[in-house]
Amino acid sequence: HIGMLLRPDARNVLVIGLASGVTVGSVEQWPSVRHLVVAEISPAVVRAERWFDPFNHDALHDPRLHLVVDD
């Protein structure tokens, strides 16, 4: 939430690194966010993220999210 506290009116957000998805899920709670890009280097991290869905608000299923998995 720190980035969003500094810019609570942000409409377009970039998160670098998915990890557990908790940061992404937190950003998605802000109503100002219209478009969210998540950049992740590891497909294994994306596969493992589903185990954290109860803690990250099911982050990868938000329609505003665009996930980029690439190196």
UniProtKB/TrEMBL annotation:
Annotated keywords: Transferase
GO molecular function, one term: transferase activity
Domain (PABS): residue spans on this chain: 1-71
SUPFAM superfamilies according to UniProt: S-adenosyl-L-methionine-dependent methyltransferases
Gene3D superfamilies, sorted: Vaccinia Virus protein VP39 (3.40.50.150)
Any Pfam family hit: Spermine_synth
PROSITE patterns xrefs: PABS_2
Membership in a protein family: Belongs to the spermidine/spermine synthase family.
Name this polypeptide is given: Spermidine synthase
Native source species: mine drainage metagenome
